């Protein structure tokens, strides 16, 4: 079995983790004899559908679809449920989802940079989903903030370089080793 699932970068490794879990489970069930992987796949899928989260106490399949994870052979032959039964089932699911919902901790503080403040810029290769060495630095700089433009864009300048423009989402404060920011510096 050498099938790679196509994925989008914004899934952030969910496909890879699912693929790893399936491969690991199949290797345990098949005991190295992968000619029987079709039989083991049903057990793997059942295990993934019925596994309960230690945090919520519910399986992801139940939270998404409102029914517990069943084996494929155990699915009911009746295709259509009565509407009232489905409404009651959905009410239970919405109640469970509401009880395990966490409160949102959003911040009201908007970080800004003042003229002359030093900052670091996130390397563009990280945002373009390129494969790079983990030991390479994630940020470039330090840069000096020259001015704020519209739409949260800053003009910054390196000591030996031209003035560049970056969105605030790529900029972080530059701290010295002892946690104190640089004073206003002019390049």
Automatic annotation (TrEMBL):
Domain of life: Eukaryota
GO molecular function list: nucleic acid binding
InterPro entries: RNaseH_sf
Protein name per UniProt: Uncharacterized protein
């Amino acid at each position: 079995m050498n099938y790679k699932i196509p994925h989008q970068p914004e899934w952030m490794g969910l496909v890879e983790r699912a693929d790893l879990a399936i491969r690991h489970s199949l290797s345990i069930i098949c005991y190295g004899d992968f000619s029987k992987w079709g039989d083991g796949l049903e057990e793997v899928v059942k295990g993934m559908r019925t596994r309960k989260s230690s945090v919520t106490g519910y399986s992801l399949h139940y939270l998404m679809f409102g029914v517990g994870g069943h084996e494929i052979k155990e699915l009911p032959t009746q295709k259509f449920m009565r509407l009232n039964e489905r409404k009651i089932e959905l009410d239970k699911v919405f109640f469970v989802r509401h009880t395990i919902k966490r409160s949102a901790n959003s911040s009201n503080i908007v970080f800004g940079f003042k003229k002359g403040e030093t900052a670091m810029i996130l390397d563009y290769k990280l945002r373009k989903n390129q494969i790079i060495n983990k030991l390479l630095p994630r940020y470039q700089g330090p840069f000096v903030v020259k001015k704020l433009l519209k739409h949260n864009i800053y003009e910054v300048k390196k000591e030996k370089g031209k003035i560049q423009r970056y969105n605030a989402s790529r900029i972080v404060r530059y701290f010295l080793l002892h946690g104190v920011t640089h004073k206003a510096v002019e390049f």
